[in-house]
Please model this.
Amino acid sequence: MIKFNLKCEQGHEFDSWFSSNEDYEKLHSRGLISCVICGSCEVSKAVMAPRVKAECTRPDLRKEPPLDDVGRNFPEEARKIHYGEAPERPIMGQAKIEEAQALLEEGVPVLPMPMKPKQVN
Ligand SMILES: [Zn+2]
Model:
């Protein structure tokens, strides 16, 4: 038996047991899984989604390991990771807007985050 944490289109979360992932898929495709709260059949797995290299680059700070703060080396480090020259890991750091844009143009996923204003010198 596998327990899946399911979530409906309304955002209700609930647990349900299935004999296998196949069983879940079968029931799901027939619309036989419905939300225990609102009865909606638009249900999907909330946390048991396969861990794939998704295109979504937004880091989930609750689940991901702490970010490696590379500071001003960020653009260089992000590029190295992208091209496989440095170990793949989530990093954070500072980049000028032009640098961040250049990375994005190269296809390096970067996510701008608000920085605490820092006193310069
Ligand atoms: Zn619901």
